[in-house]
Amino acid sequence: MKFPREKRDPRTVVKPPPEASPRVDGGGPWGPTQFDLPERTGSNSQAILIVALVGVVVLLVIAGLWTLAYFKFT
Q1: Which of 6, 35, 55, 59 is 20 to 30 A (C-alpha) from 69?
Q2: DSSP at 29
Q3: Residue 6, CB-side half-sphere exposure with 13 Å CA sphere
Q4: What is the C-alpha separation between 48 and 24, in angstroms, rounded?
Q5: CA 1 from centre of chain
Q6: What averages of pLDDT result for each successive group of 10 residues across the chain (74 residues)?
Q7: How far is the C-alpha of 24 from the C-alpha of 31, rounded, in Å?
């Protein structure tokens, strides 16, 4: 048995806040879309290296403190 299709009127579901309209710089009132994002420049290998070195230093400090506490209290 086939039922007739329901007709619906188109309506706006969500409207952006009024204060969003003056700060639009492409992409619409909600901000930039994925196509409006700035181009990626270079790589972040320097940041990865710094974070890795800081992590190694922190692990070494923790290992040193643990070793010091182990030999001092046993």
Answers
A1: 55
A2: T
A3: 3
A4: 33
A5: 50
A6: 82 71 56 62 86 98 97 89
A7: 6
